[in-house]
Design brief:
The complex is a heterodimer of chains A (about 280) and B (about 375). Chain A is of the alpha/beta class and about 280 residues long. Helix content of chain A is about 35%, strand content about 25%. Helices cover about 40% and strands about 25% of the residues of chain B. Classes of the chains: A alpha/beta (about 280), B alpha+beta (about 375). The interface between A and B is large, with 63 and 52 residues.
Chain lengths: ~280, ~375
Amino acid sequence: MSILIDRTARVLVQGITGRQGGFHAKLMMEYGTDVVGGVTPGKGGEWFEGKPVFDTMRMAVATTNADVSLVTVPARFAADAIMEAADAGIKLVICLTEHIPVSDMMKVVAFCQRRGTRLIGPNCPGVMTPGQAKIGIIPAMVATPGNVGVVSKSGTLTYEVGFAMKNHGIGISTIVGIGGDPVIGTTFVDVLEMFENDPETEKVALLGEIGGSAEIVAADYIKNAMTKPVAAFIAGRSAPPGKRMGHAGAIVDGGEGSAEEKIMALEAAGARVAANPEEIPGLLA
Amino acid sequence: MKLHEYQSKFLFRDFGIPIPQGKVATSPNEAYDIAQELGGVVVVKAQVHVGGRGKAGGVKVAQNAEEAKRHAASILGMDIKGLAVERVLIDPGADIQQEVYLAITNDRGAGKPLIMTSMEGGMDIEELNRQRPDAIVREHVDPIMGLHDYQKTYIASAMGMPRAQWRSFGRILSGLYKCYSASDAELAEINPLVITGDGDLLAVDGKVIIDDNALFRQPALTERRDTSGEPDSERQAREAGITYIKLDGQIGCMVNGAGLAMTTMDMTKLYGDEDGIGPANFLDIGGGASPEQVAAALRIILSDENVKCVLFNIFGGITRCDEVANGILTAYNEVNPDVPMVIRLQGTNAAAGNRIISEAQIPHIISAETLTEAAQRAVAAVKERS
């Protein structure tokens, strides 16, 4: 088993005729993901690698019976695309797009909650269940199947840690990139809870960073509700306060959201926190 | 993007929020004319993007136009925490009976707008939150529904606003929420919102921060960007589409991805801190980094004369290491750096990338296989040169 996705996921790619969307849709199909079609308004009736392209999500879902959607459209269209997917009845939407305004995301998150749709992201690398399916841009080479769940705010840092785990012979049940934006659809706690309830996940690696308090809330959950061991890394110890470190959410503001307080909270909750991400495999062994 | 006090208040005025009838001056003579026109007591306020300008002497009360001119002369050009004051706001003095705090901000944890208000305004909200957290009323707004009228009554009553001011406070609250939504603000803050001797409400100081990701649909606000507080290198990077933040260490870092870029900085500090060595910058080269972008990034990193070594840490996913390697060579030939460069390429096409680098046989290139090794070698290279 795994969480969120497995080989049965039927995936639509919103923006499949775009450069990024098309490129990654192809890699996903090569990995074995069941991409059943795509949506680009105005391009309905075209084909992409043998899969149908639709004008609307409503039509795409009705025809393909898809249950997952991957949003790859540019920031100014992404909020609408997510809501369109939720409105069409998709229960899992994964959004890669970076730079969506926060005011849009607050509306989108509320909208998805009302429709009973789980949103992963935005500004995330996606979800991968090694050996079964990947939805997003996580490179195939960074993970092998196994029993460690990985949840992370960042893309390339996740690849780094996945790769280090692979080199130590440690496999992964599912990787979930929750994204580095201030307002996101799925939090650390949501994913920790899924891993806690997943019989095939035995341990969890959590990769956080400065900004906000999601890691503190996660520490609380680890302390009170988790039986499975957690190894963690928090990026941004050397980041100065008041500066946004690339990710829109990565900022220490008014003394809140620093790496130190997150590390302390996680350690106090019983998680093992690495000073160097390449130590994570050792902490999981 | 931060707005200045005067920009924030003029924006509030567009949404029906009463503000003092002040104007901006860029010279002492202008300040004199404005003070003369306003008549009576005025306040001369430095317009800079730093906190604590009052303590630094950037806010002064003047009894008449002559004094306003003198104050403007001393404040204009003043250095406040490294920023030169280019403008002053001349506001009429307000008859302050009570200072109120009122702000709307994005509550990232809740994913909703949050109204924060208190009858104990004046000091900054972090300080108030530390000293008297119970004196702050907090109310979330449904992002889809917007602010309800009943919430305004609830807030006014919960905070202890005198009933005589409920109507005008409610109008200001609505105006501020509209301003916050329409401007895609991360923060719209009035502090203090003053209750005058006549019982009127007046937004005496204001602060607005606009979400950078929404600037594409805020052309009027984008035009108001003041880049004077931004280091040249950061401005160049922004214009080249690269995220760069200058720090004060010696190891220039070029990394793909924000999380990994922070991590790479952390590693240089982890292994260098005891020798006073650390990161010179944050730099995220982004997804499919082209040779031109790598070259631009390298020039920006090397424009910092503290840099004694450059560390490339690329974990190829979408980014292909062979392309980055070519980018590094192009950049190297163009920029011709005289500092050692530690290069660590991993992931997609790493073997090809490393071959390109080693075949080029560039002097003072140090290769590394892991992030740990790369950080340690960069620290060692800095030690050797100092």
